[in-house]
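Can't paste images in this forum, so I'm doing it all in text. The chain is below; anyone willing to post the predicted C-alpha cells underneath?
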Amino acid sequence: MLFRAFASVYQDKMPAGILARMQTRKTRHQLYLPDHLSARLDALAAEPNNSKTSIMSEALGAWFERREDVEAERQFGRKLERQGRAVERMEQRLDHLTEVVGLFVRHQLTLTAHHPAFDAATRKLGQARYDAFIRLVAEQATRGGGEKAAGNSISGKGAK
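Text version of the structure:
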C-alpha cells in the first residue's frame, strides 16, 4: 500500500515498466482440483517460463472463447440455416425456370421448323422485335435484373 502511494506521487519519475507492473490487478481465487489435474498442473508449471497462474489464465481464456463461440453459433445458426434454405429454394426456382425456357425454345423450334422463308416485311418486324428484346434485357441488366420493366414492350412497331 505504501509503495502504491509512493508510486502515485512519483509516477512521472518512475520507469514505465515498474508502474505498469504495479497497476496490474489480479484477484486471488482458491479452488479445488482433482488430484490427477493438480499433478499435471504442477508438472506443467515446473517447466521454465510457466506458472500456475499463466496456465490457468490461458485455460480459462480458451474455455470462455469456446463458450462464446457456442453462444454465437446458437444465436446466428438458425438465421444462417434459414438463409441457406432460402438460397436452396432460389436455386430450385432457377432450375425450374431454366427448364421452362428450354422447353419453350424446343417448342418454338418445333413449331417454326418447316415454315417457308419470311418476306422482307416479316423479317424487318422480327428484327425490330429482337432488337427491342435485347434493349430490354440490357436495361434490366444495368438496373440489377430483378426489377420488372413496367410499360416496356418488346413487340416492336406494327405488332398485333
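Helices lie at 2-9, 16-23, 35-45, 52-111, 120-143. The first helix runs from residue 2 to 9.
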